[in-house]
Amino acid sequence: MFSYIKSLFSTRKIILEEDPMKKYLIVGLGNIGSEYTETRHNIGFKILDQLAATEEFTFATQKLGAIGTFKIKGRTVICLKPSTYMNLSGKALKYWAEKENIPQENLLVITDDLNLSFGTLRLKTKGSDGGHNGLKDIQNVLQSANYNRLRFGVGAEFAKGRQVDYVLGEWNEEEKSKLKERLDRSCMAIKSFVLAGVKNTMNEYNGT
Questions:
Q1: pTM for this structure?
Q2: Which CA distances in Å does 100 have to 18, 28, 60, 76, 141?
Q3: For residues 13 and 133, which has the higher predicted lDDT (pLDDT)?
Q4: 37-to-48, 162, 170 alpha-carbon distances in Å
Q5: C-alpha 59: how far from its chain's center?
Q6: What does the pLDDT average to over 151-156?
Q7: List of E strands, the chain
Q8: Given 24, 26, 31, 41, which residue is catalytic?
Q9: Is 41 assigned a catalytic role?
């Protein structure tokens, strides 16, 4: 009898561990290579690196990207930095979402946004790609614009025709002095998304 009860408990534990509703995929957009590390376009990578530091996990190179995982209050959070370059971000996202059986509502994409002032956060559950090549590819791969994205404002302090140079440029000194606090705030928003849900997180963090 004891063995039977123990078997039931073990089976229940496995079911809980594999429950897709308890798993989340956080995808930070960016480009691989040291020349891109400190650029505005790589804020998705930057935020996930900060999350890894605060939650004490590391990234390992795997298929189509670097993967890092941590647990928080019974939930498993899988963080992905695609190695496909920005224009093919959807390929890595789709592979890992399918591999880990992540429901679309538990997906969060982190990206830079020229339409928001520096450091401003905006979480949305749907929307256009806004001309962002990474979001454009994700939308094409998912065949849907209904996925969660956390936008990090990088401002638009560039002359006409210099957009590419700006997003692929490095932070100025004023931005660098404020970046750490903004990265920490972004990490808090990610954890809130996992624990409190998208609507509560939008109310708490949007515009801050």
A1: 0.88
A2: 9, 17, 16, 11, 17
A3: 133
A4: 12, 20, 9
A5: 14
A6: 94
A7: 23-28, 60-62, 65-72, 75-82, 107-113, 121-124, 148-153
A8: 41
A9: yes
